[in-house]
Fold each of these.
Amino acid sequence: MDFAHFDKRNCPVVSARSGYGEWAAHYDATVAEGLDRPLLGALRSVQWPEVRSAVDLACGTGRTGVWLAQQGVRVIDGVDLTPEMLERARARQVYRTLQVADIASTGLPSSGYDLCTMVLADEHLADLRPVYREAARLLGTGGSFVVVGFHPYFLMNGIPTHYHRASGEAVTIESHVHLFSAHVAAAADAGLRLDECREGVIDDAWLRDKPKWQKYLHWPVSFAFAWRRPGV
Ligand SMILES: C[S@@+](CC[C@H](N)C(=O)[O-])C[C@H]1O[C@@H](n2cnc3c(N)ncnc32)[C@H](O)[C@@H]1O
């Protein structure tokens, strides 16, 4: 579903490529780490230190790559659409390779990875099925696909992924709403099996970091799925 159905703010809408190109310079200072870090840390179905090689889909500035490296993942490749985001990821020196590509068609080798991650990017995809198929292609047998996303509840309440220009103007990045059933259907289509699902809720810990979010207390703000490519 197009986010436009739920938009209450009616800010200018830009494409992901153009929006992240503009946001890249201050993305790391403004992204809410509470969206993904607690969920990644809570996942029990992925043994991070045992991952030999990972591919970080829509790696952006490399926040997830840094986190994976801290968990003991040694080899990480990154893919993203936006060169300005990738420049920042390159500076972090945790990726083996970084390339500009669509995450639905990376060109990376089949069955080459124990782990695929896609963090805070699913809302920019009109259709989830191609990226789930690509993740399934990239994973070896038993490999995990970890998807962390901005919760559809927030999008459906009219709050999109957005950033502020230097002028203060708020800009929405083109977004789509995917219900959890769409993730389940895309994963099933790709032959992936669910290991784990978690949701993050705005709580007191979140408000200590971001007191302005008080009005959203108890709202679900993010989600994590861990899918597995089963053996044949
Ligand atoms: C919110 S950022 C998330 C970046 C990083 N994963 C993180 O958690 O900080 C979304 C990223 O998705 C990328 N992106 C959006 N659509 C994409 C696509 N079809 N293929 C590749 N990258 C895409 C954008 O360029 C941007 O870097």
Amino acid sequence: MEKIFNLNALVRKNINALKPYSSARDEYNSETQDMVFLDANENPFNTGMNRYPDPHQLKVKQLLSKIKGISTENILLGNGSDEVLDLIFRAFCEPNEDNVITLPPTYGMYEVLANTNAIDVINVALSNGFQPKVDAIIAASNNKSKILFLCSPNNPTANSFDASKIESLLKAFEGVVVIDEAYIDFSNEESWGSRLHEFPNLVVTRDTFKSIRFGRN
Ligand SMILES: Cc1ncc(COP(=O)(O)O)c(C=O)c1O
């Protein structure tokens, strides 16, 4: 029988219990074009930058949605990938309790963020050909393993991971699988963003604005 994956069961309890913060922009949504929110430090003089930014960044998400082929509700914008990686730790990993899996040699920031968030790191070295060792990764994980980081193309080895190995890990790993595609624009591989709907435990991080600047989709 196929396993039912419940993402909410992996989220930290205090995060699951949060009520979304509501700003003045949310509360007066239909009138905001004409209103000036002095209590949000808006400036009544139209300088082009005098309004509080949309907390949901809807217009830029709509633009990105068309370019990337990903629906707006599946997009989270951050101040670079590192901020989003930190948010993923904070959403899923209970400090001093949970662990994450990284595959050295790989991007060093996963370990820095783990240390910042008081999360253990289980290292499972890549194979001699710099590919993930699927069986060893699953054997090393336990019920406190919340995130598996797959950096593809990998920093510093530059190769992409085999799609079949990534797919096996997406199916077998019981936590969240983060595919870090910071360098996807230098590769001929297709982004795993196109397969988000297939895997409920998949998160893909990308450096969107760098890729727009390079003129690539
Ligand atoms: C693999 C990888 N992921 C993420 C990042 C962070 O990217 P950003 O500058 O968007 O935070 C880097 C930066 O070196 C990286 O090498």
Amino acid sequence: MLFDTHVHLIDPRFDEDRAAVVARARAAGLSGVVEIADSPADWDRALALAAEHPGFVRCALGLHPYHADEWRPGLAAELAARAKSPGVVAAGEVGLDYAKCEVPRPRQKEAFLGMLAAASAAGLPVVIHCRDAYADLMPILRERFPARPAVGRFHGVVHCFSGTAEEAVECAALGFALGADGPVTYPKNDALRAALKGAGLAALVLETDSPWLPPQAKRGKRCEPADVADVAARLAEVFGLPEKELARVTFGNARELYRL
Ligand SMILES: [Zn+2]
Ligand SMILES: [Zn+2]
């Protein structure tokens, strides 16, 4: 019942062995992955990957903060036009990145707000990326998502959650799932593990962000969806649960998040 809610398999680092990577994910017991397209130039490739692996690869269509300068209002109509395509389960990733991103912050915010509105108009949950920007993200979430979700428990997910314990609890209370990935396996990340535990298992989904964020056992190497098992194992320890139970609950959360 493992499910990887966030992968980038169209990344060139998978060009040599993409089919084998998907096969290994199936062999590792995953029941599916969600391919995250970071820019409109990648939307059709993500749709094609989902079409190649129906029922196993789904996709989200987004505009990563790195690509925020590509934002234009016409993207809303383009997203809406593709929202009903087979395999499309979310809009994203979209968000704010104040760590390494070269796009100026006002431009990132404009793109983020535009894509949030576009996701809502298209009826899709949203995959949010936030790095070193929680002070700006939280007021936006409070203002844009004042009510409970119309469908299920989640408006979307704050993927690769890296905020504080207070922010974790508030994101969950606002109707957002929290994505847990490789960093929960890093020895130094006690604060992150405590924050996720404080938010509660009912808010957590598993991800890898492949090819990024390898778990501790693969530091420095390419990450792939099968590695989500390491994230599940570490979180099972944190919650004091059998791995199967951790996988079952987070899979249920992922199905509710992506309305599967
Ligand atoms: Zn991200
Ligand atoms: Zn990502």
